[in-house]
Amino acid sequence: MTTKEIKKKCKGRPKCFDRQEALEKAKIMFCLYGYQGTSIAQLTDAMGIKPPSLYGEFGDKEKLFIEVLDYYYAPYKEEVSRIFKEKNSTEATFKAIFNLSKGFHTQGISVGCLIVNSSINSYDEDTLIGAKLKAIHDENESTLYKRLEQGKKDGDVAADVNTKRLSRYVSGILAGAAIIARGQKSTDAVTDLLEQGFESFQILIKA
Amino acid sequence: MTTKEIKKKCKGRPKCFDRQEALEKAKIMFCLYGYQGTSIAQLTDAMGIKPPSLYGEFGDKEKLFIEVLDYYYAPYKEEVSRIFKEKNSTEATFKAIFNLSKGFHTQGISVGCLIVNSSINSYDEDTLIGAKLKAIHDENESTLYKRLEQGKKDGDVAADVNTKRLSRYVSGILAGAAIIARGQKSTDAVTDLLEQGFESFQILIKA
DNA sequence: GGATTTTTGTAGTGACCACTAAAGAAATAA
DNA sequence: TTATTTCTTTAGTGGTCACTACAAAAATCC
User: Fold this and answer.
1) Is A119 exposed, middle or buried (0-12, 13-18, 19+ CB in 10 A)?
2) For residue B112, which of A69, A124, A114 has the smallest C-alpha distance?
3) Which residues of A touch B (CB under 8 A)?
């Protein structure tokens, strides 16, 4: 007996929508118009549900957005984790990460990165959203940092490299790529930035 | 007889506010809360005027914002122009530009860059604001590109350097710095990104 | 079948949004 | 002084915001 079949055995009227599909639609809207720029009416239209269903399922707009942030970040996180396991050298690992960003921003109509976009508008850490965004950014930068430190142990990152500074450099370039992708909508500009960024990364880990 | 004295000789009730001071206050509000996030009520409170005065002077919220964008961009443009005249080498010129960004984002409470912030929310070129932002970005990138081309003629940028790619690289890092400054509010992170960025720039123009 | 539980759709809530009509106030012109 | 012009202030406009009270609908439990 699956979980879904167990779920069906409970009392009350069953839900008319799929939670994940609803999150997916909400994600698209927030990516396009941002947190402030997306109204509940727009969300309910896109999700195919009525306001009471949205509030019943997700609490309020802010809580829904935070759920969407996790839902958005999870695949990226998994992909980076996969790259870490798959690739051996530090250079190949970061090449794959730069390529991940390039692929993400250059196929289809790019709307940038929801995390980066949101950090512009909800930059106050005192808010739930601000704290969540800060946590995601810190986790990402820390992941890059740890991989560079590992590279030092493995010997393919030079001993005198400032790994903290370099992780912030990579993080900054990835953020810049997201901005350029959304603001300029030029795949060439994104590609140039990331390729030049990786080229310099190759040099920087060697000295 | 000055222009202001001539202005005083016209009919009608004189204005109770200074146009530039009003723009300055509007700039602060838009920098803090963005275009969508700043209401007319917030603007009029900060500017010390009532809505009819705002609409009489600036047209509407969108036109005011576009004026603020120009007002915001002008000093940066002048400063870059001054650097171009002052510095001789390409390296010293770009060092000064990276430092300009560093100084801007690391003194006081940084709110990032109004141009970059706005390009997240008003990224559609079909709007007046989107077109203005695109124009400013293109002008800035073009300025950097031309200076790199000049460097090739002067001989302090290697002949085989892809100047277009490099200008996009610099532009991307400056955008990234603005994002980090606003989102992370860490002066160290901004400094690391810009210093590492300039360090790699030094290498990249030599080969 | 009737009671209970949960979700649904309808139809709103007060608050705030960008913006403005209208009249008073302050200057010049005659 | 009176008329004209321009700006200011007051007091709103309809529209949209996030959010919700309420009752019908659809399931299970007894």
Assistant:
1) buried
2) A124
3) 34, 36-37, 112, 116-117, 119-121, 123, 125, 133-134, 137, 162, 164-166, 168-169, 171-177, 179-180, 182-185, 189, 192-193, 195-197, 199-200, 203-204
| A150 lies in some domain | yes
Query: Does residue A199 sit within a domain?
Result: yes
Q: Taking residues B167-186, report their average pLDDT.
A: 97
Nearest to A35 by CA among A66, A72, A57, A56: A66
Split into its structural domains, chain B has a count of: 1
The verdict on residue B59 lying in a domain is: yes
Q: Count A/B contacts: CB-CB distance under 8 Å.
A: 144
We report the CATH number of the domain holding residue B172 as 1.10.357.10
Q: What is the pLDDT of residues B58-92, one digit of tens each?
A: 999 999 999 999 999 999 999 999 999 998 899 99
Task: Mutation target for A interface from B184, B186, B191: give the one with most A CBs within 10 A.
Answer: B184
Q: How far is B13 from chain A (nearest CA, A)?
A: 39
In this structure, is residue B8 part of a structural domain? Answer: no
Average pLDDT over residues A26-33: 98
A78 vs A64, A72, A73, CA distance in Å? 22, 11, 9
Q: Residue A201 contacts by C-beta under 8 Å, 6 or more apart in sequence? A: A91, A94, A98, A166, A169, A170
Residues with Cβ within 8 Å of residue B106, at least 6 apart in sequence? B181, B187, B190, B191
Q: Are B164 and A192 in contact (CB under 8 A)?
A: yes
**pLDDT tens column, B86-134:** 988 999 999 999 999 999 999 998 999 999 999 999 888 889 999 999 9
Question: To the nearest 5 percent, what fractions of chain B are helix, strand and coil?
Answer: 75, 0, 25
Range of the domain at B57: 15-204
| Contact in structure between B44 and B54 (CB atoms under 8 Å) | yes
Residue A156 tokens, joined: 């393919």
What distance in Å separates the CA atoms of residue B133 and residue B119, rounded to the nearest whole number?
A: 6
Interface residue ranges in chain B relative to chain A, Cβ cutoff 8 Å: 34, 36-37, 112, 116-117, 119-121, 123, 125, 133-134, 137, 162, 164-166, 168-169, 171-180, 182-185, 189, 192-193, 195-197, 199-200, 203-204
